[in-house]
Amino acid sequence: MNTYAIRAAETGNIGLMKSLIKGGADPRKLILPATVAYNITVVAHLISIGVPSYLCATAEHGNAMIVAVGGNLLHEFQSAVADKAFDDACAIIRAVDIFMTKDYVMNLINEDPMIPIRSLQTMLIDAQTRFEVEALYIAIKNNDVMTMANLLRKAETPVTSEALLVAIRTGNTGAVHVLLRHGLRSTNAISLAVCHSLPDDALRAVVSAHTIPDLTRGVLVACRRGNLNALRILFETHTSPSPSALFIAIEEGHTAILQCILKTGIAFKADDLVKLAIEKGKPECVELLLQFAHIADVHHHLILAVEKNHVSIVDQLIKHAKPESLTRALSSAVEMGNVDICQKLKLAGAVTNDQMFWTAATKGYSDILPYL
What is the secondary structure of 253-284 as a DSSP string? Predict the structure, then answer.
C-alpha cells in the first residue's frame, strides 16, 4: 500500500494518494518523496492533514521544510521551532539545489512571489543552471522576524548583503531592522531604500548605519526620484549635497527638491544652473535660483529665454534685467516674431528703434508693429 502511495506522491497524483491514505497508507512516509519530486501541492495537502514537515528535514533531505515555507505554510515551520526541532528539522534549512528550465523559472516568478530569487540573471544564463533557494530569503520576504532571528543565530547560515537589499526591496521594515542589527551593510542599501520609499524609521536606521559615500549616492537618487522626505532624512545626518544634486533636481523639474538643497547653503555657479533651467523650460527653478543667488547681468539668460520662447521665464528675468538688456532682448523677440514677449519687454521699458520696425515689417509680423 505504501509503495503505491509513494509513487502517487512522487508523480503528483493527489487523488490516488488520498484514496490510498484512506485505505491505510502511512502519510508520514509520503512527504519526503513528494518533496524530492517538488510536488508542492501534494506536500501542502499532507501538511494540512497533520503530517509534520520537519520529520523529513534531515541533514540528507533538508528540503521538505523549504518547500513547506515556500508554499506559505509558515505555521508548520514555526511549529518545528516551537517543538525544539529546529536544529534537526531545518539543518539551517540548507539551500536546495533544483534543476529548472527557463520557462518553469519564469512561471514560478510570475505565479509565486513567495519563492525567493537571489539572482534571476544568474539563474537564466543556462536553462539547467543550479540555483539556491534559501530559507532566510523566504523569511525576509514574509517579514517573519522570528524565523530570521533563529536563522541568524546559526553561524553556518550564509548571510550576504543581498539579504538586506531583499528586505528593503520588499518593504519589510522588521526584516531591515533585524539585518542591520546583525551587521549587514550594502553600498546600494540607501539608494534602494530611497527608490522604494522605505518608511521613515527604517530609512533612518539604514542611513545611520552607512558611510558618507553611500549617503551621497542616496542624495542623488532622492533628487532624481523627487523623494523630498528621504532627502530631508539624509540631510539630518549633515550630509552635504554635491553640485550634481542641483543639476539633477533642475533636469527633473523637482522644485521642492531644489529649494531643499539651496536652503543648505550650498555654493553653486548660478549662471550654469539658470542656463540649464531655461533650456529645460523650468520657470519655477529659474525663480528659485534668482532668489538664492545674485546674478550681476541676466542679459544672456534673457536672450536665451526669448530664443526658447519661454514666456513665463522671460517674466522672471525681466525683473532682474538692465534697460539695455531689455532692448537687446526686444530686438531678438522681434526677430523671432513673438508678440507676447515683445509686449512684455516694451512694457518693462525696452527701447524700440527703426531696425526693429523694419525687421517686423519685412517679415510680415503685423501684430508686433503696434508695440514698436
Answer: T-HHHHHHHHTTT----HHHHHHHHHHTT-HH
Report the C-alpha gap between 243 and 226 in whole angstroms.
16
C-alpha cell, 70: 515556500
pLDDT at residue 173 tops 60: yes
The answer to whether residues 268 and 250 touch, using CB atoms and an 8 Å cutoff, is no
Q: Which of 3, 10, 8, 28 is CA-nearest to residue 18?
A: 8
User: Rounded to whole angstroms, how far apart are CA atoms 195 and 174?
Assistant: 18
Kind and range of the H or E run holding 308: none
DSSP letter at 186?
-
52 pLDDT tier (thresholds 50, 70, 90): low
Contact 345, 371 (CB under 8 A): no
CB atoms within 10 A of CB 5: 24
Q: Which of 44, 74, 193 is nearest to 140 (CA)?
A: 74
DSSP annotation of 347: H
Q: Are 260 and 235 contacting, i.e. CB atoms less than 8 angstroms apart?
A: yes
The reported pLDDT for the residue numbered 366 is 86
- By the 8 A CB rule, do 306 and 336 touch? yes
How confident is the model over 200-257, as pLDDT tens digits?
999 999 999 988 888 888 999 999 999 999 999 999 887 788 889 999 999 999 999 9
Q: Is the dihedral of CA 194, 197, 198, 201 positive or negative?
A: positive
Q: Are 268 and 246 in contact (CB under 8 A)?
A: yes
The amino acid present at 171, given as its one-letter code, is G
Q: Determine contact, residues 332/303, Cβ cutoff 8 Å.
A: yes
Exposure string for 211-226, b = 16+ CB within 10 A, e = fewer? eeebbbbbbbbbbbbb
Please count the CA atoms within 13 angstroms of the CA of 76 that sit on its side-chain side.
Answer: 27
Give the three cell numbers for residue 212.
558618507
Task: Kindly compute the dihedral angle of the four CA atoms of residues 347, 351, 355, 359, in this order, to the nearest 10 degrees.
Answer: -10
Element (H, E) at 97: strand 96-98
